[in-house]
Amino acid sequence: MIFLKADREMELIFNRLIKTMKVSVEWTGNFVILEDYLILLGRVRSLLFNFESRKAVTNIVDIPIKEDALVMIEENGMLKNTLNMTLYVFGKWGSISGLRVEKQYGQLNELFTGILNDISVKPDLNETNLRFYKEGIRLNYEDVIQLVIEAKHDEEALDEIAQEEKIGLWHNVCWKKAAYEILRAEVTKEERKQNRIGNHFSLVGYLCPVCQKKLYQIVYSYEHEPLIDTEEGRVFLARAYTCNQCQSYYTARPQKLFAEGDLYELEYHDDTKAYEDYQELLGANADLDYNCRFNEFEADRKRAKQEEGTNQETNDGVNPEPIEEIAEVAVNQLMDHIEADLERMSEEECNEIDERISSKMEEGFYSPKTVSRYEQYAKPKLMLRIRQIKKEEERKSEKERKQREERENRKLKYDGKMKVLSRLSDFQIKEMVQNLSDEKILEPVEKQAYLDLIEQEKLRRQKERAEKNGDKFKESNTEKTDDINKTDNQKEKSEHKEKSDHKEKSDHKEKSDHKETGDIKETGDIKETDGIKENNNQKEKNNKERNVIKEKGSIKEKGDLKGKGNIRELDGIKGRSGIEERDDIKETVKKNRADHIDKTGGTIKQTVEERKAGTIDHSARETNAEQTDSEKRTAQKIQAEEREFQNREVNYNDIKKSEINETMMRQRDNRPIEVQKHEIAGYVNRARKNNRSDYTSLIEELEEKNYAQEVVDPVKEKLKERIAQLDQKEIDEICAEISDESFAESYEAYEKIEQGDFLPELKKDAMDQIEKRLRKIKTEECELLIKKIRNDWPEELQTHPRIHFYPARRVLQNEAEPEEYEHFQQAVKHFAPPRTKFELPIILLDASKKEDGSAGILITEDYVYISATFEAFMIPIIKIDCVELKKGLLGSSLWIIQKDKNSNKLRCMLPKEELATLAQVLTEFLQYLQEKPESRKIDYLAKAKHEIICCLRCGYKYKDGQICPKCGYKINL
Ligand SMILES: [Zn+2]
Ligand SMILES: [Zn+2]
Description:
Layout: E1 2-5, H1 8-21, E2 27-34, E3 37-42, E4 46-50, E5 56-59, E6 70-72, H2 77-92, H3 105-116, E7 122-125, E8 130-134, E9 137-139, H4 141-164, E10 176-179, H5 189-194, E11 196-198, E12 201-207, E13 214-219, E14 227-230, E15 233-236, E16 239-243, E17 248-252, E18 262-267, H6 272-283, E19 296-297, H7 298-314, H8 323-341, H9 347-362, H10 368-419, H11 426-438, H12 444-469, H13 471-517, H14 526-538, H15 543-577, H16 582-622, H17 629-654, H18 659-665, H19 673-686, H20 692-704, H21 709-737, H22 740-746, H23 748-755, H24 760-792, H25 795-798, E20 803-805, H26 808-812, H27 818-830, E21 841-846, E22 856-860, E23 863-867, E24 872-876, E25 880-888, E26 891-898, E27 903-906, H28 912-930, H29 938-942, E28 949-950, E29 957-958
Parallel strand pairs: 1-6
Antiparallel strand pairs: 1-2, 2-3, 3-4, 4-5, 7-8, 8-9, 10-18, 11-12, 12-13, 13-16, 14-15, 15-19, 16-17, 17-18, 20-21, 21-22, 22-23, 23-24, 25-26, 26-27, 28-29
The chain binds zinc ion (2 copies).
One zinc ion (ZN) is lined by residues 208, 210-211, 213, 243, 245-246.
């Protein structure tokens, strides 16, 4: 016997039933379930339903309620539905006067099956009774209720599991090209055996190119190679690598070794679940430790197969040798080559062969037999040969070194003698000349240099003697001129040598100077380096100081434009040179930026002043009695504008502002109205007016010109009307694509209940369930997308006061504080009304004056909502190409470019330096949103079952089974 206490909802339903049946039962709100009876316990009479006998009667029953055995119904949906079932069953049997159930027995059975699905109980309702079966065994109603109550606990547990079984974000399972340097790691056989991460991945002697942790390898046999999608087409995967720290997969491009670093890469970053699912999927078919083939394009393999096919026909069915055997033969031949030609091989060749074979061995190309043959016989020989070559080379270089030393010593000796040359006797000199000519150690050039010096000394002595002998020399002088000329040359040469010696020294000094100031060349700015070289050449003591000043100077020049970049540059310089003045420099840069902003502010202020002066002019004219009406109006308008302008003035100091202000600052055209009208008409006629952005830019252009407002305003109005028409058309088209009707249509479960003549309570409940589930999925997704942004975007954008992230989960759980989402409320109110039922905002770029979110850009999963100068509009994300930073007359601004080349300007309050980054990260984010698989759409999610399954993680479409064959996602429906 089971005692149940009804909650408010159950009380309402069953009290209404009692009323409908017009029976005199005063229900206590307690149910008693006994075998096939459901009893509504009354104070005097009770109402009894029997599922076996079809009877619904009142009677006096005396069952004392055991308070401690009383089960609360509360939020147990299945229990409620199982109780509600009573109404349909007895309604169908006609036992309840006033309640008629139109549904067929079959339909009702289907509905009940759905309700009891979770406890695997099959109902069988027919004209005579309602029975229940579990695994072929009949249960009574009491058993069923008992199972439902027990299932409640399981359900709670399941809920927790479901909490953990997060769906994660979608991944495009397409391997991307990447190039890395792959480093080797020493891994012993023991380590290889002990370190397996499961799924047939085992430790391998390579390091992760990103984090330098050891990688794991998986190798497939030829028959089991899986096909993967890459940027370059489909590839048969012979082997793959993974880093379980980075959660990335790698593999070599076709016909390449992994060691070469020409790779494909598949990253899962921090989505551990997706990473592990894929690993399991890859591991499922691996069965071998080696495969002599490289990765191969599917197209190449197909072609090869066809050729093989035709060859086979011509070869009269003689099978060609299998590629495995060919490979083994090839490596064996290579080893034979080592054996035979070892003596003739260079070190380079030895290393090359070893490198290639070792890489292939590491990457599992060879059978264990081949590996051991190489390791035991061939490799030691190669290594020995390399050692021999090295020793020989060492011997050779040792000999050379000795010779060099000897020569240096000899040179020192002669250098010493040259210094005292003038003091040597003629005989000693003669002896030295003799020695020099017999010299074997010195190079001929070196010898000649000494001989030249000696010759010089000889001449000097001759001259000296000649001077002593007076005229005697003069006579012979003419004959000797040539000789003397020659010696002059020699003299010059030696002087030159001295100089170059000196230069060498000074060069050396220069170099050390460079070292002191840091190798500034490396900072990259060639001009700056040139300057520094000049300074160095002057070799002044304050060289160092000057360099610093120079650096500062150049930064001063650039400071206005890209202060940040320069600070980064300086960081680099500091790192290398140890200049400690960076803070000063930073200050200078800051100051310069401030100056610049001041200046800009100043200009605006100035213009404002000028403008005021203009107004005074106008008011002066206003006193003139002969003023025409239109002039008066214009003046009034301008005055009003002026007031507004003054109100805005505060903003100009902190924000360098936009085009509109610029136009407002200009004087209006004073020419006759008719002339202006004519001109505008012509202008508008000639302008291109194909699409929306043509119209908006036309309006902007008109704004920029100085026409009188009364002339330009009506034209603008007309153009805006046209824009509105275009927008309406666009919206209509999109609504046709994604209308609420089609949404409801696909809402299969929802619809089924809607059409049934069920009690509203039951209907509402089922719908609530679906809605709750969908809302949860979408909230989860929104949270994950924001987490993704937080991973991908630079810090300065994430913390910018103008950028807001929607606290989806906290809002769903009623935990969010108003200040966390009020910007979004304003955005939704002013320019971003949600277009579909479960649409959630993700990110808001606030561009409103009040900083309250009432203008700007709001991105949801499917749309970008934009508040422009004139009105708000939205673009479906699927139509967007990119976000671009465009330089215009009035500064740079962000534009959103659609795939059909339409473009719209975005209002954005971020500083200029950050716009380029923002454009890039926004584009990447929007492109990611475009990859969203169809399975993530509400109408897909709302369906309980699908003919063709679209994977929730990767979007791959397939027919049967919960597990996606492409990414390994496990719970597809
Ligand atoms: Zn890694
Ligand atoms: Zn998938």
